[in-house]
Design brief:
three-stranded mixed β-sheet, GMP Synthetase, Chain A, domain 3, single chain, five-stranded antiparallel β-sheet, about 20% strand, alpha+beta, 8 helices
Length: about 280
């Protein structure tokens, strides 16, 4: 059974599983892993545990982070700034309708990743050629959404606190205007939208709580009604076969007479008058 640990590469990012056989690492350690993008430095979030049957093949941890790795990471940050400035220059020169958000360089410098936003699909083949000719390595362009942009850049929300997506949210859940209606909030898009321009993620927090409370109340009401039904015992009264009895027989007789009167009265109202000759 392989030993697995959970590694995170970015703050509030997703946690990925890596095989840790033969490497002595603990929760909180910095490690160098061979990810799908190349060599990267990550932080161990979930300690060592065993998995009996894993659905896919796991990437392995190479080693713990050394001083050389930290130094290389710092040098890569300078290279990321240079790559970002050059990419912005080429985007403006070619007039591409896109917004560059962030640039990432792998630890071994074998891949440059550029994150951008755009309203539609962009033909950036010529831009990739310019970047590849400049940096002599593999270039990857990734189009992201506005919520991912806010998560990468960060900022302050209307509440005055740091954005939830850049502070603790690891994934985005669907948010709809129905959540605001259920909480009886003022349907003002300026007050309900975050810095990304979409509905604020925090609208879902109270909505889940209200939904759980409503379900609990409905379950309690159902239980109380069922208990009342079980506690009810029908009363059996003597009945006179000639229609002049007591209890249930007398009550049914009075109900029939009342229904007959209402039916006759209703029929008179609905009866059409015959035209005068």
């Amino acid at each position: 059974m392989p030993e697995v640990i959970g590694v995170r590469f970015k703050p509030c990012g997703k946690i990925y599983d890596f095989e840790a056989d033969g490497v002595d690492v603990n929760e909180g350690d910095l490690v160098v892993v061979d990810s799908e993008l190349g060599l990267n430095i990550g932080s161990v979030i979930i300690g060592r545990y065993t998995v009996e049957d894993y659905k896919r093949e796991l990437k392995k941890i190479i080693r713990k982070v050394t001083e050389e790795d930290i130094q290389q990471k710092q040098e890569n940050r300078k290279l990321e700034i240079e790559a970002r400035d050059y990419c912005l220059e080429r985007v403006m020169a070619r007039g591409l309708p896109m917004k560059l958000v962030s640039t990432e360089v792998t630890l071994d410098r074998k891949r440059f990743i550029f994150y951008f936003t755009a309203e539609r699909r962009i033909d950036f083949r010529e831009l990739v050629k310019d970047l590849a000719a400049k940096f002599k390595t593999r270039i990857e362009m990734r189009q992201i959404g506005v919520r991912d942009e806010a998560k990468l850049i960060g900022g302050l929300g209307l509440c005055g606190r740091e954005l939830c997506c850049s502070r603790f949210l690891t994934s985005f859940e669907p948010v709809s205007i129905k959540m605001a209606k259920r909480q009886e909030l003022v349907l003002n898009t300026d007050k309900l939208s975050g810095v990304c321009g979409r509905l604020m993620c925090c609208l879902g927090y109270e909505y889940d709580k209200i939904t759980r409370e409503e379900v609990t109340i409905q379950e309690e009401e159902t239980i109380s009604i069922s208990e009342e039904v079980e506690a009810f015992e029908p009363v059996v009264a003597s009945v006179d076969t000639h229609g002049a009895g007591e209890g249930e027989g007398q009550e049914r007789k009075e109900q029939k007479e009342e229904y007959s009167k209402k039916f006759i009265k209703y029929g008179k109202k609905r009866r059409r008058r015959s035209p005068k000759k």
